[in-house]
Amino acid sequence: MKIEFDLSPEQFSDKLDRFWSLSGDKIRLIEKDYDKSQGSPVFTVGGKYSTRGWTEWTQGFQYGSAIMQFDVSGDEYFLNYGRENTLNLMAPHVSHIGVHDHGFNNVSTYGNLLRLMLESKIPANEWERNFYELALKISGAVQSSRWTKIKEGGFIYSFNGPHSLFVDTIRTIRVLMISHLLGHVFQGEGDERIDLLGRAIQHAKATSDYSVYYGKGRDGYDVRGRTAHESIFNVIDGNYRCPNAQQGFSGYTTWTRGLSWAMCGFAEELELFDLLPEESLKSYGGKKEIENFMLEAAKATCDFYIENTPVDGIPYWDTGAPAIHKMERLLDQKADPFNEHEPVDSSAAAIGAQGLLRLGRYLERKEPELGKKYWQAGLSVMKTLLDEPYLSTASSHQGILLHTIYHEPMGWDNKPDKNRAAYGESSMWGDYHMREASLYLSRILKDQKYYTFFGCIENLSI
Question: Measured between alpha carbons, how far is residue 15 from residues 5, 268, 386, 402, 432 in Å?
């Protein structure tokens, strides 16, 4: 991709104002027209949100979007909408033992509401605060119970079962970190005290070791920074077996949304560990060791994104997609969401942009030149996303971010034109992460408190 080094947050003021105006309209439109009896909205078909049963991982994005909209606008309609639905509908997600998505659903809702209370953007109320804290404590414990031991530690296993490590989960383990920092004690058989922070660190290490490649010859497709969606283990002896893919083309190609989860997850966790005292991390190998492996993974994945994405910062859904070789000068021109061969995935761009921005800011003091590269790359991606053809401006379309992809191999995504790749639709995770990246920039632009997932922890901020 082409990095624009002359961009600054101040240049995004009008774009962000337009975005948040459109965003509010979309949230109201979904509330007005979506049939809740279908279940959680997942992606749009013809501009209308529909559902797709696989796992329940998008409802928190729906209500979290409204909470972020309130954060920016101050319009209490969005606060009431997000808060009431969190109270009435999100409890099953707190106790859901069958998914690896707690850090999506519950940090997006309970976490954002608790953060707003600590920032005095909503009134302080002891019982309401206790309610949000309890939800986050239990969510972290439930998530951590999906545990597979391997020779080097362990990992939170995916909905596929105990053999399966998903790269996505690097961003959901933040709920274990929150639960730990809120002082929760998770107990197992015989009152065994299970260390939530320890499990989060072990999962991050397993992800960095097995989901991310570093060009060291692990297999014939070991290119630095690429990621495998799924890593398969023998659960009997704890040995790693092979890479695999659920939503990517193969275990030996890079599904770009998985790549973006790693970019964003490692970068935001680095921000947290930078604040934790050395003494609190000695028993986990030490602060330096933890930061080193996370930073190596963050840099590698961000570099791969920059090197393997078209000039405007929007990736195709998989860097090894089967028909991508038919597209000439692929990386030397803007991504084409209307092409005949392979779809782009703007949701990967929205997630990846935040990873680039956060890593850039993290490195600002440590490696300023490299930090500037990642920061400006993140701004370059956001410049593209905040305008057509990715910004959804049609008043009848319920999504805010166009041209996202859910599951290309399964053919789940709507194709308005049978002669073209899937295009023109939105997804609940794409919309949420576009709002989250825009909130991140909006707060920087307004010189507000720096936005982090651990903003819901008192006295812990950048």
Answer: 18, 25, 6, 16, 17
Those residues with Cβ within 8 angstroms of residue 209's Cβ, 6 or more apart along the chain or in another chain: 152, 293
Nearest CA among 171, 249, 164, 256 for reference residue 210: 164
Give the DSSP H/E element, type plus range, for residue 140: helix 126-144
CA distances from 352 to 197, 277, 370, 382 (A): 25, 28, 17, 10
Listed in sequence order, the DSSP H helices in 308-419 are 346-362, 368-385
What average pLDDT score do residues 352-370 get?
97
Partners of 50 in the β-ladder = 43
**Per-domain boundaries in the chain:** 9-456
409/151 Cα distance (integer angstroms) = 33
CATH 1.10.3720.10 correct for 9-456? no
User: 0.90 cut: is pTM over it?
Assistant: yes
Residue closest to 416 by CA, chosen among 408, 424, 404? 424
Check: CB of residue 284 under 8 Å from CB of residue 290: yes
Q: What is the mean predicted confidence (pLDDT) over 309-321? A: 98
Name the strand (E) or helix (H) holding 155: strand 153-156
Q: Any residues with CB less than 8 A from the CB of 282 and at least 6 apart, and which?
A: none
- The answer to whether the beta carbons of residues 360 and 375 sit under 8 Å apart is yes
Contact 360, 371 (CB under 8 A): yes
Q: Which burial class, exposed, middle or buried, applies to 98 when counting CB atoms under 10 A from its CB (0-12, 13-18, 19+)?
A: exposed
